Structure formats: structure tokens, C-alpha cells
Amino acid sequence: MEEKNYYELIGLPPDASNEEIDKAILKKIRIWQKRTNTPTLARRQEAERMIERLDEIKLILLDPEQRAKYDQKLQEIKRK
Question: How many distinct helices (H) and strands (E) make up the chain?
């Protein structure tokens, strides 16, 4: 699976503040949370995967050490 840019997924630039990141993630979680109750299994599974990914993004981008490592990894990918 292709590695996606977390900043693009939440719709923010890499220099966004922690507060902006937290708000954007919560907004996305609310949107996807509504889809977890859909009768369509595929859409429900997609929503559950996205919520898990958003939780992961939150853990990484709101932790200063993790975010620094992620930003460095992102820069290396862009150079290639």
C-alpha cells in the first residue's frame, strides 16, 4: 500500500500548529464516524480503517519526537 502524506490527508500544511492538527483530525473523525453506521459493509469497513488511520496520524503528528521523525522521513521521500 502506498504511503500517504498525513498532512494532505488532514488538509493542512506541514508547518501547521498542534492545535490546527488536532482540530482537523477531530473534524475528519466526526465525518468518518457517521459512516460507520452505514448498511453497506464496504463503506463501513472503509470508515473504520480511516478512523484507525486518523488515530495513528494524531499520535504521530501531536508528539514532537514522532512528528520530527515523520517530517524527516517525508523529506527523504520527496528527495527521491
Answer: 4, 0
pTM for the complete prediction? 0.86
Check residue 39 and report its DSSP letter.
Answer: S
The CA distances from residue 17 to 46, 57, 68, 72, in Å, are: 28, 14, 13, 17
**Phi/psi zone of residue 12: left (φ > 0), alpha (ψ -120 to 50 degrees), beta?**
beta
For helices 41-61 and 18-35, give the axis angle rounded to 10 degrees.
Answer: 170
User: Per-residue pLDDT tens for 4-61?
Assistant: 899 999 999 999 999 999 999 999 999 999 999 989 999 999 999 999 999 999 999 9
Residue 60, judged by CB atoms within 10 A of its CB (0-12, 13-18, 19+), counts as middle
